[in-house]
């Protein structure tokens, strides 16, 4: 009877929803692949982008435990390349397939994300919406093909997705690295820290939404 090699068994048993499991199985390469899938392919909307980046940065310090060791330089490159290439790929897919691609999706979360992405584009304009979407799970997946389907100018999309993608991918990774370097036994607080960093990443979107609603109320009162 054939036996499965130990390394292959560990990869087959990986939990794609758990950042440490992904990193333990695939390392830096896994970060790049997940970033690409989450931002470029609609099937990747459920992947843990925020927590993966933060956890990967933390593990670069050697304080994350679990025998996972990562190098910061290659990690930053993999995260940035995956995030930027994924978004551009998603945009091109949307440009070719139009809205039919999103319409065929059966996930309620996916359709809700598409609605929020379209609302972002209409409310804040292309540049601000593309940057803000990076910090909102699911929305960062569907906004890219949606932008392509809506014929957002390729130059405008590319410039702002690169800016937003670098701030998101490099920023979250360095945040994990900074905290891992400064807090002893940080692995004990990993779940709390991941929840905190995800919440903090939503602040720009929340602040912009608050300002937009205040402007709308002011305009209504003035009208």
TrEMBL record:
Major location category of this protein: membrane
Entries under Pfam families matching the protein: VTT_dom (PF09335)
Membrane topology label: Multi-pass membrane protein
Bilayer-spanning residue ranges: 21-47, 67-86, 156-177, 189-207
Keywords annotated in UniProt: Cell membrane, Membrane, Transmembrane, Transmembrane helix
Family, per entry: Belongs to the DedA family.
Name of protein: DedA family protein
Gene source species: Streptomyces javensis
